[in-house]
TrEMBL record, chains A, B:
One of its GO terms (cellular component) is cytoplasm. It comes from the Eukaryota. The keyword Translocase does not apply. Its cofactor is pyridoxal 5'-phosphate. PROSITE patterns: DDC_GAD_HDC_YDC. It holds the Pfam family Pyridoxal_deC. Belongs to the group II decarboxylase family. The modification N6-(pyridoxal phosphate)lysine is found at residue 314. This is Uncharacterized protein. One of its GO terms (molecular function) is pyridoxal phosphate binding. One of its GO terms (biological process) is amino acid metabolic process. It comes from Spirodela intermedia. Keywords: Decarboxylase, Lyase, Pyridoxal phosphate.
Length: 498, 498
């Protein structure tokens, strides 16, 4: 984009065709500064006021289509008008994940430092597919074994999401095995998780061409708190081997989505090793909390796994998206994911002194995600991060004590981290189906009030409500007030039922 | 994160363990405002000064590892210190993609509006995996046929990158065919591109489990300006069919990476349809320019393709990452990519009135990318966007005329968009290898000077230098000055050679 002074007739002609007035350069630094300050204030005001919005979007499907024009405008519109439309048209349609009363799914715990890191990454707008623009991954980690670090022959990489990480490791595992047994046997490979494993595993298996009948969601039980029992895995694997299938990959989960169950990593790795399977430990939610010495034991045994990941964008104050992944055998990733065209050849790569992350992930282009995680680590420091996480655990414990103190409710599964799974108990003489229906109504009533937002899960046939503490702005009084809202709606629902 | 006032002893204990002083809430709105303004100024100053930096990173492998500490700090560090480290440690290590003298690869043409949209997306920090948080995709598009739009039974989705888009469509195509012929025939499926197709296709084929021997990079020739000739494709497909293989997928490229060649979409679609293949049109670089009426013809025939994508983060003023993709048969995508666990069940999805984009992409979680593209469209308007694009084309034409006027050089392939592929001609009596070596030296000399950054490609054995205009800050005088730098280095290299 050029200035208006030009002696090039082609260029002048291009410029002259604009009858609506030629905007300043789209990266003009003073206009950037002016508009950037406006948007910072806009977002700061949003955080100041976010507790006032209904947490869950209260709009109906199609609302935005009716509000937005069919086509982009021909001429430019001022930032003031656009921000006004965001306030009036966009904000009512979104669910406010940063609300202090957000307890749904898992939190996306943003922070100022995470935001600023993303700003810097976006501003530099570097496309880091090879070494040139990628600094080494951040060195703070939940005390992982040496074998996962570059110094020990392994290595770390920032992915966007766990889905991508799982697909990369599964593809690496697949090709490592197929190289030995022949590509024609792809239809024999089997992938294992539990019936509590995140659907990302099944999706990764589908994409990687694993036969749909060879995906095993091994059953869990309430007795094991919905963790995958190594004996169940061993039985499933043995049955497959007996049928001539080839066990390939196990995903062990530390902190399942439904109930934050913790699969026993050490025991599962033993079974996997007996069968030469790749083990990925998915600690998407709970992994960040492993910087707490009192939590670290949940990944004991990880030294026997092949890869490990957690989402810093879940419970580690780093804005979406940022999945930290480590592998023991980077060569397997590179073998499965690399292609080396001429137009990317360069001296640094050929020197073998650098890591080209394009060969560790699905996409070629890479945003500079390390910057936001690095900003989080430096801005808060490990000591504060630990205290932030502990405050969430403390609030969840407090919520648990409130639930326990009300005899109409129960805590359904043991609380391990900062999520409490609870439900209304069935009234006298009523059975599980009644209880499930009452809890379904309770959840919908609370969410429709806009005062708090929670989601549900069903484990062992029991419908339960998940109360996940971790939104950055949540303070104790929000938890207490949310519990009061839940109690009020419960009283109404029980009264209407009886 | 809570306030310090608490009556919960667990919570008080957690807070009290912090001996380094308890930081304010990581999303405190006034601290967010203060730091946000600082970083806006930091980036505005960067854009003001970016022309002063050596464009290509001038550091050696390992430089950053020596500068950064091994572990994260225990206590918090002030933003002022962190920004200082970015200036001193990070900026010298990156390649400045936003420099006005950046002509390498393809541009990542950021803009103020793209940046602000990313800020808003990061600030809201919404994890849009289902309808709740995803507005409809932007409606401005390079006049695509109705069949690609929701109104015509198709649909659009924003992916991160073309790599992801290709993997999604390839997986959809794969499963659509395997459903008919049986999964055991996965080893027979064949994927086609040309020897100029981006390596993203090969990578997607690898990940999707296509047999590595069934990836065809059909040869192109200088006579066809390195576009894929439909007759060559037809011959390749016929040979595979004769061997009992099953043609699956063709990627046609509009604006190849090496030379911006344009594959003839209409003719290629005919061949593909004869063989029931899925055709994806990859216009990663050139697609945005299809909003120019004088350019739109390059995708003529796209109505016969199955999917189409372009990267708004390449040449459409939208900061990384944002790939716009349309498909005719969304049901094929959903069939290949969906999983529907209980914890994601909701009324909106079950109403079938909404689009859950998790089933249109690799990952479950989705950043709110629509916001930045929407900001770009509204802030600049179609008319200005056309003029910005035309100014880049005009600058490339001007550069082309400068090259042509210097008899030591030649333009190697016809210029179609805003990239000029040129080279030093071999001196008298010297052959192609000599010319290749001279151009290699010329490129390295210019890039090492830090005054401009270009990259190379080899087509038909000819090493050529790619001069891609499109960085947002590039003005005509930068192009003229860069040509002068190239000429000077050429004179030195030729003098040293003779």
């Amino acid at each position: 984009m050029g200035s208006l002074q030009t002696e090039n007739p082609e260029f002048a002609a291009a410029v002259a065709t604009n009858t609506d007035g030629f905007a300043t350069n789209p990266l003009d630094h003073e206009e950037f500064r002016r508009q950037g300050h406006m948007v910072v204030d806009y977002i700061a005001d949003y955080y100041r006021d976010v507790h006032k919005y209904p947490v869950r979007s209260q709009v109906e499907p199609g609302y935005l289509r009716r509000r937005l024009p069919d086509a982009a405008p021909n001429g430019p519109e001022p930032i003031e008008v656009i921000l006004g439309d965001i306030t009036h048209d966009i904000l009512p349609g979104i669910t406010h994940w940063q609300s202090p009363n957000y307890y749904a799914y898992f939190p996306s715990s943003g922070s100022t430092a995470g935001f600023l890191g993303e700003m810097l990454s976006t501003g530099l707008n570097v496309v880091g597919f090879n070494w040139m623009s990628s600094p080494p991954p951040p060195s703070s980690r939940p005390s992982l074994p040496e074998a996962f670090l570059f110094s020990g022959g392994g290595g770390g990489v920032l992915q966007g999401t766990t889905c991508e990480g799982l697909l990369c490791t599964l593809t690496a595992a697949r090709d490592r095995v197929l190289k030995k047994i022949g590509r024609e046997h792809i239809g024999k490979l089997v992938v294992y998780g539990s019936d509590q494993t995140h659907c990302a595993l099944q999706k990764a298996a589908q994409i990687a061409g694993i036969h749909p009948e060879n995906f095993r969601a091994v059953g869990t039980t309430r007795k094991d708190a919905f963790a995958l029992n190594p004996a169940s895995l061993r039985a499933a694997v043995a049955a497959d081997v007996a049928r001539g299938l080839v066990p390939l990959f196990l995903c062990a989960t530390v902190g399942t989505t439904s109930s934050t169950a913790v699969d026993p990593v050490a025991g599962l790795c033993e079974v996997a090793k007996e069968n030469n399977m790749w083990v990925h430990v998915d600690a998407a939610y709970a992994g960040g909390a492993c910087i707490l010495p009192e939590v670290r034991h949940v990944i004991d045994g990880v030294e026997n796994a092949d890869s490990f990941s957690f989402n810093a964008h879940k419970w580690f104050f780093t804005n979406l998206d940022c999945c930290c992944m480590w592998v023991k055998d980077p060569a397997a990733l590179v073998a499965a994911l690399s292609t080396n065209p001429e137009y990317l050849r360069n001296k640094a790569t050929e020197s073998k002194q650098v890591v080209d992350y394009k060969d560790w992930q699905i996409a070629l282009s890479r945003r500079f995600r390390a910057l936001k995680l690095w900003m989080v680590l430096r801005s808060y420091g490990v000591s504060n991060l630990r205290n932030f996480l502990r405050s969430h655990v403390a609030m969840a414990k407090h919520f648990e004590s409130l639930v326990t103190a009300d005899e109409r409710f129960e805590v359904v599964v043991p609380r391990t981290f900062a999520m409490v799974c609870f439900r209304l108990l069935p009234p006298a003489q009523a059975g599980r189906e009644t209880a499930n229906e009452l809890n379904r109504r309770l959840l919908e009533a609370v969410n429709s009030s806009g005062k708090a937002y929670m989601t549900h899960a069903v484990v062992g046939g029991v419908y339960m409500i998940r109360f996940a503490v971790g939104a950055t702005l949540t303070a104790e009084h929000h938890v207490v007030e949310s519990w009061r809202v839940i109690q009020e709606h419960a009283s109404e629902i029980l009264a209407a039922w009886s």
